């Protein structure tokens, strides 16, 4: 049900405002999972405590198109392919050229071969080189990760052990994020009888 809700909201945004599918970003985010369960594993950056990694696929606006859940010990690059496959869940018309922006954790020949196989262009931050994030498109997916962890307590610390429940909360959070952006953009672009006078009333 939550997956269907997420799909309806994304399709509505695409028809009303338009998703930016020419510029995609993928990034991973680790959170605590003290109860363990499915899609969890030892977090190498947090003394090996139980954690979960969310690999988020975002469009050019930073809207979440799909999330892949895995253990915190899984490398980001191994989750790139299933993250990109989230596009197949939606009946969108994909553009001819798609550019995927990635951080230095994806800088490898395997990643480039995968993107070439899928017909995507790429912009990957090279390892050992510091590039300010505001000079790239990756800040948008970082903002999406922040929306997940700061806006939804059940995603900040994972307490559910079952994959089905974890996926449900993630889909619901994505639907709320996209719906909020849809209302905000519609307030600027359109007029209707019950339109609030002030934007902050959303």
Task: Give the structure's gist in a few sentences.
The protein has one domain (2-190): 2-Layer Sandwich (Nucleotidyltransferase, domain 5), CATH 3.30.420. The protein is an alpha/beta fold. It is built from six helices and six strands; from the N terminus they run αββββαβαβααα.
Structure description:
There is one protein chain. The protein has 202 residues and is of the alpha/beta class. It has one domain (2-190): Nucleotidyltransferase, domain 5 (2-Layer Sandwich). Helix content is 36%, strand content 18%. It has helices spanning 2-16, 80-84, 109-117, 139-151, 153-156, 163-189, and strands at 23-32, 41-42, 50-58, 64-71, 99-102, 121-124. Strands 1, 2, 3, 4, 5 and 6 form a 6-stranded mixed β-sheet that branches. Strand 2 and strand 3 form a beta hairpin. The chain starts with a helix and ends in a 13-residue tail after the last helix. The mean pLDDT is 90.
């Amino acid at each position: 049900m939550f997956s269907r809700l997420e799909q309806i909201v994304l399709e509505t945004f695409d028809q009303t405002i338009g998703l930016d599918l020419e510029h995609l970003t993928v990034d991973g985010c680790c959170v605590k999972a003290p109860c363990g369960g499915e899609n969890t594993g030892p977090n190498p950056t947090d003394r090996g405590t139980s954690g979960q990694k969310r690999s988020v696929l975002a469009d050019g606006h930073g809207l979440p198109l799909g999330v892949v859940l895995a253990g915190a010990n899984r490398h980001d690059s191994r989750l790139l392919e299933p993250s990109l496959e989230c596009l197949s869940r939606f009946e969108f018309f994909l553009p001819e050229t798609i550019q995927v922006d990635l951080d230095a954790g994806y800088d490898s020949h395997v990643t480039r071969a995968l993107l070439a196989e899928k017909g995507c262009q790429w912009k990957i931050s090279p390892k050992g080189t510091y590039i300010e994030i505001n000079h790239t498109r990756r800040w948008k997916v970082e903002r999406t990760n922040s929306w997940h962890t700061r806006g939804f307590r059940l995603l900040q610390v994972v307490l559910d052990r079952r994959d089905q429940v974890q996926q449900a909360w993630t889909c619901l959070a994505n639907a709320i994020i996209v719906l909020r952006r849809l209302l905000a953009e519609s307030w600027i672009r359109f007029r209707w009888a019950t339109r609030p006078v002030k934007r902050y009333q959303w």
